[in-house]
From TrEMBL:
<feature type="binding site">
    <location>
        <position position="280"/>
    </location>
    <ligand>
        <name>NAD(+)</name>
    </ligand>
</feature>
<dbReference type="InterPro" id="IPR028357">
    <property type="entry name" value="UDPglc_DH_bac"/>
</dbReference>
<feature type="binding site">
    <location>
        <position position="337"/>
    </location>
    <ligand>
        <name>substrate</name>
    </ligand>
</feature>
<comment type="pathway">
    <text>Nucleotide-sugar biosynthesis; UDP-alpha-D-glucuronate biosynthesis; UDP-alpha-D-glucuronate from UDP-alpha-D-glucose: step 1/1.</text>
</comment>
<feature type="binding site">
    <location>
        <position position="30"/>
    </location>
    <ligand>
        <name>NAD(+)</name>
    </ligand>
</feature>
<dbReference type="GO" id="GO:0006065">
    <property type="term" value="P:UDP-glucuronate biosynthetic process"/>
</dbReference>
<dbReference type="InterPro" id="IPR036291">
    <property type="entry name" value="NAD(P)-bd_dom_sf"/>
</dbReference>
<comment type="similarity">
    <text>Belongs to the UDP-glucose/GDP-mannose dehydrogenase family.</text>
</comment>
<dbReference type="GO" id="GO:0000271">
    <property type="term" value="P:polysaccharide biosynthetic process"/>
</dbReference>
<feature type="binding site">
    <location>
        <position position="344"/>
    </location>
    <ligand>
        <name>NAD(+)</name>
    </ligand>
</feature>
<dbReference type="InterPro" id="IPR036220">
    <property type="entry name" value="UDP-Glc/GDP-Man_DH_C_sf"/>
</dbReference>
<keyword id="KW-0520">NAD</keyword>
<feature type="domain" description="UDP-glucose/GDP-mannose dehydrogenase C-terminal">
    <location>
        <begin position="330"/>
        <end position="432"/>
    </location>
</feature>
<dbReference type="Pfam" id="PF03721">
    <property type="entry name" value="UDPG_MGDP_dh_N"/>
</dbReference>
<dbReference type="Pfam" id="PF03720">
    <property type="entry name" value="UDPG_MGDP_dh_C"/>
</dbReference>
<dbReference type="GO" id="GO:0003979">
    <property type="term" value="F:UDP-glucose 6-dehydrogenase activity"/>
</dbReference>
<dbReference type="InterPro" id="IPR014027">
    <property type="entry name" value="UDP-Glc/GDP-Man_DH_C"/>
</dbReference>
Length: 462
């Protein structure tokens, strides 16, 4: 089939490149001239495992352009995959989306080619209906069918999640469902040769299609992200309680996660969620609820727990070091999670600001995001290319992102280079079985014996 994808971010590129790999003829459109130029030269603007392999293999089926007229020509399916960033009140900024819609409709009004206009951008419930209104106003509803097809891609795993999704959600009428089923048929039946770097999961024989109305599809995307965010905030509250009652959240999570009704994923306690999706989408869902007059109390708590959770490790640092003025603090990791160079809504940013406002000397390291971070952080931050330079003479180290290279750090090494070997693990990621007695270690919800002794009296007396 002939496919156009508007927007070359994570979602647009993963969709476009994967569909080209499956044999469709794909044109990716973006208004950013430099992005399109670098894609034409074979350079990907994002860091994503396995995407380059697919890109190279799919090259003959891929085109890149800044022109809607060239890109949309005779497309059977047009995907909208542009950013829908948050406004300051939490609502979604739909400027880019509707500008892409208007350009597309202007083209289709003239050429009247039958096509399915599919929104993949995460957008408020009712957005597809607004697109339908514009299609009807242009009198092209007999050729243009509007659909919502949300994606559930996780950064660092976008190739896996695109080729081997757990479900494909299509919101739209029978025609939209028929056309998208045909487009996705190699994925639905898993009848393609899987790329070397992203092999097919062994159990996967096929992928279910869930066809629904557009509003349910739109809400499902928010509900999925809000539910996962809720699991994280829930386990973080349990972790905070563990610190007070002398329990270990990793053990509590292991126990509850074995219950298949709960599930073990997204129960990793720490400094909370970041990234371009959970913070934005939870706020957008809260805004949608408020607008309609519904007080979504649980969601508000999820957001507020996450807002405060990142500062827990600064409290721990203060408990150990006292005032932070003049202390050298090593910050390990800047990205919102490992496997990506994305620092959007990363907990590292407010944590660093808080350290600086307390007068600390902040030395940061990250294996991939130092250059990006320079633009978002004050010039008083020290950016270290070598991990050892961040750690030397430090009064404390904070683990913010669980990059594999940090998990290898040796306690003897920390103890030899740091002024005070205090390691605060914001992700409960370190294997500390051999660390005892060598350095001071604190995780989130992994209580130390001191707390157990103090609080057992309180618990007994009640
Ligand atoms: C998420 C959803 O997983 C994906 O389905 C959706 O399409 C987009 O949003 P992503 O933002 O790439 O994907 O990251 P994810 O792996 O879900 O992690 C989000 C954040 O939650 C990270 O900051 C991560 O560190 C944090 N997290 C995750 C936890 O703190 N604990 C956990 O148990 C899991």
């Amino acid at each position: 089939m002939k496919v156009a994808v508007v927007g070359t971010g994570y979602v647009g590129l993963a969709t476009g490149i994967s569909l080209a790999y499956l044999g469709h003829k794909v044109t990716c459109i973006d208004i950013a001239v430099d992005k399109i130029e670098s894609l034409r030269q074979g350079k990907l603007p994002i860091f994503e495992p396995g995407l380059e392999e697919l890109f190279l293999k799919a090259k003959q089926n891929l085109h890149f352009t800044t022109s809607f007229t060239q890109g949309l020509e005779q497309s059977n399916v047009i995907f909208l995959a542009v950013g829908t960033p948050a406004n300051s009140d939490g609502s979604s900024n739909l400027t880019y989306l509707f500008s892409a819609v208007d350009e597309t409709i202007a083209y289709l009004s003239y050429h009247k080619w039958p096509t399915v206009l599919v929104n993949k951008s995460t957008a408020p419930v009712g957005t597809s209906d607004l697109i339908v209104e514009r299609v009807e106003a242009a009198c092209i509803q007999h050729v243009v069918t509007v659909a919502s097809n949300p994606e559930f891609l996780s950064q660092g795993k976008v190739v896996n999640d695109t080729l081997y999704p757990e479900r494909i959600v299509i919101g739209g009428d029978d025609r939209a469902i028929r056309v998208l089923q045909e487009l996705y048929s190699p994925i639905i039946s898993q009848s393609f040769a899987s790329p070397e770097q992203t092999p097919r999961p062994k159990h996967l024989k096929g992928v279910p299609i869930i066809s629904v109305d557009t509003r349910s599809a739109e809400l499902a995307k928010y509900a999925a992200n809000a539910f996962l965010a809720m699991k994280i905030s829930f386990i973080n509250e349990i972790a905070n309680l563990c610190d007070l009652v002398g329990a270990d959240v990793t053990k509590v999570a292991a126990v509850i996660g074995k219950d298949s009704r709960i599930g073990s994923s997204f129960l990793q306690a720490g400094i909370g969620y970041g990234g371009s999706c959970f913070p934005k989408d939870t706020l957008a869902l809260q805004f949608i609820s408020n607008t309609i007059g519904y007080d979504f109390k649980l969601l508000s708590s999820v957001i507020s727990v996450n807002n405060s959770q990142k500062f827990i490790i600064i409290e721990k640092l203060r408990e150990e070091l006292g005032p932070l003025y003049g202390k050298k603090i090593a910050v390990l990791g800047l990205t919102f999670k490992p496997g990506t160079d994305d620092i959007r809504e990363a907990p590292s940013i407010p944590i660093i600001h808080s350290l600086l406002s307390g007068g600390a000397e902040v030395y940061v390291h990250d294996p991939v995001a130092l250059d990006k971070a320079r633009a978002s952080l004050p010039s008083t931050v020290h950016f270290m290319n070598q991990l050892s330079d961040a750690l030397i003479d430090a009064d404390g180290a904070l683990l913010i992102t669980e990059w594999p290279e940090y998990l290898e750090i040796d306690a003897e090494y920390l103890s030899s280079v740091m002024r005070r070997p205090l390691f605060i693990d914001g992700r409960n990621a370190m294997d500390t079985s051999s660390w005892r007695g060598i350095i001071e270690y604190r995780g989130v919800g992994i209580s130390n014996n001191e707390n157990k002794r103090i609080n057992s009296n309180v618990l007994q007396s009640k």
